[in-house]
Amino acid sequence: MRAQSAMELMLLTSVMFFIFMGALLFGGYHLAASKRESEQSQIAEVAEFMESEIGIALASEPGYARDFTLPTSLGGARYEILVEEQPDFTEIIVRFVNYTYEFERTILVPSAVQGMVNMSPSVPEVLVSIRTYPDQVLEHSPLGEQTALLPRGTADDRRHPGQYHGDGHRP
């Protein structure tokens, strides 16, 4: 009888252990998914803010100028803003790299808007400048509703890993 009780106790303990481990795995998965969603929404907020600033610049008279700042980190983790110039437009890529997950959001900017992004580690904020110039007229954007920002200057003369270098190329 004692041997049977010991066997039942071992079996019950094993089943409870597997149930407990399953609950931990399930909870951990949902916690990680929640963190991923939070990070994606933070990148989306930064990109939407930049899109709205670019939209204001496009709707304004030539000569419009605006400087604004963004935080250097989102939720304690760094992100990067890359600018890639194309012949007719510029792509702004807001990217957040966190361990094995990478999120990015691309903004397309017509050539009527120019600007600069400075993500220097010595500055506690990301500095962004937007300008429209009188000699550039935006008649009809082939990009439709998508708009974005573009730099024609340099972001930072010093080369820092994972940051815009001012030459239009990703690091």
Notes on the structure:
This protein is α+β, with helices and mostly antiparallel strands and 171 residues long. It has one domain (42-171). It is 34% helix and 30% strand. The protein is built from one helix and seven strands, in the order αβββββββ. It has one helix spanning 2-59, and strands spanning 65-71, 73-74, 77-85, 89-98, 101-110, 113-118, 125-132. It is rod-shaped, with a radius of gyration of 25 Å. Residues 135-171 have low confidence and may be disordered.
What integer value in Å does the Rg equal?
A: 25 Å
Tell me the number of structural domains. 1
The global form is rod-shaped
Mean pLDDT over the full residue set: 73
The main β sheet shows up as: 4 strands, antiparallel
Low-confidence segments, given as residue ranges, are 135-171
Total E-strand runs: 7
Neighbour order of strands in the largest sheet: 2-3-4-5
Oligomer: single chain
Proportion of beta-strand residues: 25-35%
Q: Span from first to last CA?
A: 71 Å
Please report the number of helical segments: 1
Helix-strand category: alpha+beta
Keywords, please?
171 residues, alpha+beta, four-stranded antiparallel sheet, three-stranded antiparallel sheet, 7 strands
Task: Summarize the topology.
Elements: H1 2-59, E1 65-71, E2 73-74, E3 77-85, E4 89-98, E5 101-110, E6 113-118, E7 125-132
Antiparallel strand pairs: 1-7, 2-3, 3-4, 4-5, 6-7
